[in-house]
Amino acid sequence: MSSSIASVNGAGHQHNGTEDRKFGDMRDYMGPNLFQPHLARQAIRDAHEAKIPKLVGYYAGLASVPNTRWLAPMGWDFNWIDWEHSAMNVETMTTLTYAGRVPSHDESTIAFALDAGASIVAPHVDTVAQAKHLASAVKFGTKHRGIRSAPPFRYVQHLTDTALEPEEGFWLSLNKQAALMIQIETLEGIQNLDAILSEVPEIDAAFFGQLDCRTSMGLISYHGIKGTEPEWLEAVDLFHDTIKKHKKPFAGFAFGEGETLRQGASKMCMCMVSGDTVALAGMRQPLAAAREAFLPTTK
Questions:
Q1: What is the DSSP annotation of 233-286?
Q2: E strands of the chain, at which residues?
Q3: What is the pTM of this model?
Q4: Which residues of the chain fall below pLDDT 70?
Q5: Is the Cβ–Cβ distance between 25 and 19 less than 8 Å?
Q6: Average pLDDT along the chain
Q7: pLDDT digits over 94-127, tens only?
Q8: For the segment 199-240, what is each residue's pLDDT rounded down to a tens digit?
């Protein structure tokens, strides 16, 4: 279960919950310092309520620190580090982060990403029990049902441990910064989503894993497929109806340009519009063009 979300916009203005947005993007939601998570929970909610534009990110499917450093200054609101499907160790993940899909629901794995300053995307959430466990794993303090352990040497005392809300104390203040997002990737998860969102209000946003969902339902599945099977359309409608009922932010992938992109992202408050694997796949076109250009010519 690993996805990490964090702004890659660089230093900026700290958002304090008032109408003091200077940039209208993730720079307004910086934490007290770069060692801490950004105010991702508030940014997602504000984007959902159209107080700011949609958050725009990219997908990092390859365990490449140089690639991420290359992309970071471009102005993305977040990057999605796919720890679930990429062969990377903890050190690489925590160097790449901010916004990670973690590979499991294990609280120690989640803690690595959170301690690095990331927000979390948890895959394959099917039941209320799983969602409750995830919520407890990302929170400090029993009054928040939290079981997260405070990392003793992540922050430098009196230097990087500045509390966003001093009256709450440092650790409990962090509960309001990093976001918890879940992926619904099976029909069981869709059918249980109403109960999940009712009983686990700590969830900040939901993704719909259509590739895995179609596969689990025994339907033909590949990137970009527009399923028309009655059981699939019923499942899709149930997912979106449930998200709307709970006024919960929805996030996902949206590709294309202009009206195609606007339509694809119409229900989303945050979307990934490109990625390292997407860009590299585009290299097939110049290769094909070169092959054609260099065909032997007959005289």
A1: HHHHHHHHHHHHHTT--EEEE--SSHHHHHHHTTT-SEEEEEEHHHHHHTTHHH
A2: 2-5, 55-60, 78-81, 99-101, 119-122, 180-184, 205-208, 250-253, 270-275
A3: 0.87
A4: 1-21, 97-104, 106, 299
A5: no
A6: 87
A7: 777 655 555 567 677 888 888 888 899 999 999 9
A8: 999 999 999 999 999 999 999 988 878 899 999 999 999 999
Largest CA distance in the chain: 84
Residue in the structure block whose two tokens are 């340009």: 257
Cβ within 8 Å of residue 224, ≥6 positions away: none
The two three-digit tokens of residue 6, written as one number: 């964090």
Angle between helices 230-245 and 187-199 (to 10 degrees): 10
Two tokens, residue 121: 């995307």
Count CB neighbours of 124 within 10 A: 18
What distance in Å separates the CA atoms of residue 249 and residue 171, rounded to the nearest whole number? 25
